[in-house]
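Provenance

Sequences were taken from public entries as deposited. Structures were produced by running a predictor on each sequence independently, with no templates supplied. The record for Myb-like domain-containing protein from Cuscuta epithymum is shown for reference.
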Amino acid sequence: MSSQKRGSNWSYNEDVFLCNSWVSISEDGAVGINQAGDSFWSRVHMLFCQKANTVVRTREAVESRFKVINNQCSLWKGSLQKANATQRSGSNLIDVIYRSPLKICPHRRRSGQM
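Predicted structure for Myb-like domain-containing protein:
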């Protein structure tokens, strides 16, 4: 058995800081798109820690949490695309979201979900 204790749950604000950090590092024109994975995630982790000013998160925890967020976003995007493909005349974005088969509710968190 591992003696490592599980970290605390991620807050909504931490998720926002993480996503903002990921975007900032991803779009860094000075470094470009050819960043090595370890270097990229180290930079995301460093920026996240500067912005979040919260509980200590390891680089691995930051990368793992982003994978969860990215997976949920991909599911949501697919759900919206499916709903948009059957969009009725006169409907708007709110109608498409309402008909979407997958609705993400941030206030209803389960393990490994947003």
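The helical segments are 12-26, 37-52, 59-85, 93-99.
The chain has a mean pLDDT of 79.
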